[in-house]
Every structure is written in C-alpha cells, then in structure tokens.
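Open question from group meeting: does this chain pack into something compact, or does most of it stay loose? Before anyone orders reagents, we agreed to write out a predicted structure and look at it together. Recording both the input and the output here so the notebook holds the full record.
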Amino acid sequence: MWQGLSRATPIVIVAAIALASCGRPSPTPAVASPPAAAAVDSSQSSCPITRGQQPQFIPRLPQATTPPGGEFWYGTAALWTALPNSGAWPDLPYERGSYVQKVFWWSEGYDRSSEPLPALSVDGARLDGPAKSLAASTATNAFGPDIGSAMLVLIQIPASGCWRITGHYRTASLSFVVWIPN
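Structure tokens returned:
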C-alpha cells in the first residue's frame, strides 16, 4: 500500500488532516443570553427598591408571619405580595428575550373556588432607562396549606435594571420596585 511513498508521507497526510480540521469550529447550538442593560444609571444603588413597611404588614392566617426564603410581606389587606429582603430577583430564567418570574398576590377575602381566574392585572415599567413594557399572563389561582388561596401571574421582564411593578385587583393597587440584575 505504501509503495512509491516515502516514510514521511503518512505523517504528512495525518498533519494535513489535523490542520484542515482546525480551520472551522464545531457547530454549537445558539444560546440566548440576556442583553446588556441600556441604562441612564443601571446600578442597584440608584434603584429605589421597595423595603419592608413600618409597621410591618402581617396578613391574617393561613399565611406565616414571614414568608419563606428571605422575603417579607408587602401591601395591605386589600392586596399584598411577598418581596425579597435584598430588593433583587437574581438568577431569573431568561426565556425568549425576557427574564421570567412568577409573582403570587393575595387579597383578604379572595377565594380560588369562587374566582378561579381572578380579575388581577399586572403592569410594569423600567425606571432607569428605556425598555419595552413588562408583559404579564392572565392571572390564575394557587393554593397551599401554608399560603391559602393566592393569585398567580407570570411576568416577562424584557431587560435588566430597576423596575416598578404594579398589581390591580378590585379597587386596590399595589406597586413595588425591584432590581433585576444581568
């Protein structure tokens, strides 16, 4: 098989194949990554994040005095939610061009069995720079022995930065400000 070829020929062939394969990277699937925040001032220190109220709001049972996971209750008996003590929602999933977060809301007297699709709407706007408006799903219900009847909305936040989010239910509205890091 190697007649007429010098002993160096196989080495040259192997070297040529190795060099040819170095020219093109292997194909990898494209992964969406969050865009850098366009900002006027996109630092958390300039974001007026919502902190716990004084006096502290504590809903009636079945909710715990404090929610789990480093959060606090925020709002009034007419409409409340649980917010992070840090003021930020880090490590949110980034799907189809938006950060995604589930937000639970409560209202005294809300009952999931009589109102399975609560008349809750949620909107939001970025405070520290330009961005599309926040998108929110239709509200649905949730229940657990530790949370009672709750309303649940999936929000899609199109950019990192400082966001004011507002829930509207019956005659009540509740706004809070949260930081969405890159």
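Observations to bring back to the group:
Helices lie at 9-22.
Residues 1-31, 37-41 have pLDDT under 50 and may be disordered.
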